[in-house]
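Q: Please design a sequence for this.
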């Protein structure tokens, strides 16, 4: 259906250095930019920051998101979709 496609922006943080994370301003700028265009944004950094960062990555030498991080992301995205997109 033309014209019915919806966009949601998901900002994944770098999965290391949560304690001294250097990209909060960049996350805020991205969110502000898309929100000004009425595009819903899910920024995962504030959610991930509440969890022990070591429990969110594959391993000590692999900072990719693991199953736990992906589950959290999926829940946050689903919540945003239900709240702001699906109507």
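A: Design:
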């Amino acid at each position: 259906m033309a014209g019915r496609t919806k966009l949601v922006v998901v900002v994944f943080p770098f999965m290391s250095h949560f304690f001294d994370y250097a990209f909060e301003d960049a996350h805020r700028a991205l969110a502000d930019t898309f929100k000004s265009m009425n595009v819903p944004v899910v920024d995962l950094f504030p959610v991930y920051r509440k969890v022990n960062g070591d429990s969110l990555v594959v391993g000590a030498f692999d900072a990719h998101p693991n199953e736990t991080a992906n589950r959290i992301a999926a829940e946050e995205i689903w919540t945003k979709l239900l709240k702001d997109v699906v109507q």
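Q: Thanks. Anything notable?
A: Residues 67-85 form the longest helix (19 residues). Residues 9-26+35-85 form one domain.
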